[in-house]
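Dear Dr. K.,

Following up on our conversation at the group meeting, I've run the structure prediction for Peroxidase from Panaeolus cyanescens. I'm pasting the input sequence below exactly as I used it, so you can double-check it against your construct before we proceed with anything downstream. Let me know if the numbering doesn't match what you have in your notebook.
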Amino acid sequence: MVSRGFFSGALVFCAIQLVSAGLVRRTTCPNGATVANAACCALFPILEDIQTNLFDRGECGEEVHESLRLTFHDAIGWSNTKNVGGGADAIETAFHANGGIDDIVNAQKPFVARHSNVLSAGDLIQFAGAVGVSNCPGAPHLSFFVGRPNATAPPADKTVPEPFDTVTNILARMADAGFSSSELVALLASRCRTPPFLEHPSTPHLVFLIPRFFIEVQLRGTSFPVTGGNQGEVESPLLCEIRLQSDHTIARDSLTACDWQSFANNQSKMQAAFKAAMLKLSLLGQNQNKMIDCSDVIPVPKALPARTKPNLPAGSSMNSVEQACAASPFPALSADPCPSFVNTQLCFDTIRICHFHASS
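The predicted structure tokens came back this morning:
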């Protein structure tokens, strides 16, 4: 659990946007960057610290994936109908659904402590998530607002959906937090990160937010990567892929299947939907009118290489697709000509670090 002592301090709202001739007058920060609000200048040293010391000088790696996962676990402890917690303001690692996030919580604690005079713990969790995503080619430019108050108590248990929950229960929990079924599917784009064993030598960074996840989960499962019988896991079509039961069922449920399918070959739609859903998630339980928009501090992600296009995994075909959307057929895709697994050790290392949680 993040120590409550880390919650002391928040950004001082020291600047007001000046508008002249209908344009926002921008402020030049000490590092030469310009921002719409001078208060955001204080975030650039934190950005540099996080990029250098948490994300290995700006890589799109496992720390990014886990930081993004943490933004969900932190924020979803919110309800529009009952008092379960404060939303995007803290994290409680003792709850069953939060198992496996201890490493990233511990990794972020020193940053919370170093920058507590500028950011609350809730701010830093969301800031690290947005910064991390910016390291991944193909990702959208996420928004970031600062000014979350210090948390006074942990959120209630059982507010994070689990992979063995039914679609009905997951949708109900998300609706209680203010999310539609379409927004739930959009948030699952956080899974769309190519793992290390799929990385091509010509692409030195892990590609993030390509539709491959929405394609692979729609394929018929054939085996388990290690052993079966794990709660919340179902068969996968790929040797090294752990498939969550919740992903499998959401992809095939009549309420979500068409939204799921719509992302399979539409990168721009997925980017826009993920960006909007992530902003909503990051503001759960907060008053946006009392916060400062510091989105211009978040770096702009690189675009995907021009050659990138959606395809089926190598060795598969359209016969492997389990059609679920009743309104339209799954898009016709060709198989990737490259081998799916080029490094068996990396494959099993990835299995070892995976966690069976619906928001991982």
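Two things stood out to me. The two ends are 18 Å apart (CA to CA). Residues 219 and 321 are 4 Å apart (CA to CA).

Best regards,
J.T.
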